[in-house]
Amino acid sequence: MIISLCDDSHDVADLAAQRVADLLHASPRTVLGLPTGRTPILMYDRLAERHAAGALDFARATTFNLDEFVGIGESHEGSYRAYMRRYLFDRVNIADGEGHVLDGLAPDADVECARFEDRIAAAGGIDLMILGLGANGHIGFNEPAATLQARTHRVRLLEPSRKANAGFFGGDPAQVPVEAMTMGMGTILKSRRILILVTGAEKAETLAATINGPVTTQLPASFLQLHGDVEVICDREAGNAIR
C-alpha cells in the first residue's frame, strides 16, 4: 500500500478530492465507488466546491455506493441515499440514474443485492473505490466474522457499527437499523484502484493492523493487502501507530 500522511482531516479531504478530480479529468466516464459516514464529508465538500467553480464535471461519471440500511428509504434522513443527495448528488451534475445506491425498501434484499452486482458489471466495474475504515476494521458493512462474503449481500450489523452511525439517527444507536446491504470484499477488491481515508487517533491501531497485520476475516480491512493498487490517505493521528 502507498501511505499518504497528511497533517489533518482537511488535508486528507483535499488530497482525496484531488485524486478524484485528476481521474475525472483524465477519464470523464469514470465509475466511482463511494462511501458514507463522517470521514468523507469534507471530501464531498471539496468536490462540490470544485464543481461550483466550473473546475469539475460529473456529467459522464457513474457512481455506486458501498452500502445502505435495510428497511428505510431515501425519504428517511438516516438513509445513505439521503446522505448522498445532501453531501454530493444535489451539489454536482451527476446525471439522473447514474448515482446508484442500494434500495433499502426493496421487497427482497437478496434480489436487490444481485441487481446491484449486475449494474456494477454492466458499467464495466469500478475504476476508483473510495473507502472509510470502521473502528472494528469493517469495510463497507463487511463486519468482522468467521467468514466474509464476496458479493453484495445482506448483513446483520454489530453494535459498534450501529453506534458509529447513531449520529444520523438522532444520536440513538437503538434507532439504527439492525440490517444493511453492502458490497462484499470480492466486489471491493475487483476495483481497479482503491483509496481508503482514515482520520482520528481512535482509528490508529486498526489502521496499523490493516497495513501490517495478518490478513484475517476478523479484520476485513486487512484484505486490502491483497490488492495491487491501494493508497491510504490518513492524518497524523490515524497514522501514528504505523511502523
Q: How far apart are the termini?
A: 13 Å
Q: Indicate the low-confidence ranges by residue numbers.
A: none
CA-atom Rg in angstroms: 17 Å
Largest sheet: 7 strands, parallel
The order of strands across the largest sheet is 1-10-9-6-2-3-5
* Quantity of strands, as a count: 10
Helix % is 25-40%
- Overall geometry comes to globular
Provide a count of the helices.
7
Structural class: alpha/beta
Helix and strand succession? Answer: EHEHEEHEHEEHEHEHE
Percentage of residues in DSSP E strands? 15-25%
Q: Give the overall pLDDT as a whole number.
A: 96
Structure summarized in a few sentences:
The chain contains seven helices and ten strands. The chain is α/β, with parallel strands linked by helices and 243 residues long.
Walk me through what this model shows.
The chain has helices spanning 9-26, 41-52, 80-87, 109-122, 159-164, 185-189, 204-212; strands at 2-6, 31-34, 62-65, 67-69, 99-100, 128-131, 153-156, 179-182, 193-198, 230-235. The chain starts with a strand and ends in an 8-residue tail after the last strand. Helix content is 30%, strand content 17%. Helix 7 links the parallel strand 9 and strand 10. The protein is globular, with a radius of gyration of 17 Å. With 243 residues, the chain is of the alpha/beta class. It has 7 helices and 10 strands. The strands form 2 sheets. A 7-stranded parallel β-sheet has the order 1-10-9-6-2-3-5, covered by helices on one side. Helix 1 (9-26) crosses helix 2 (41-52).
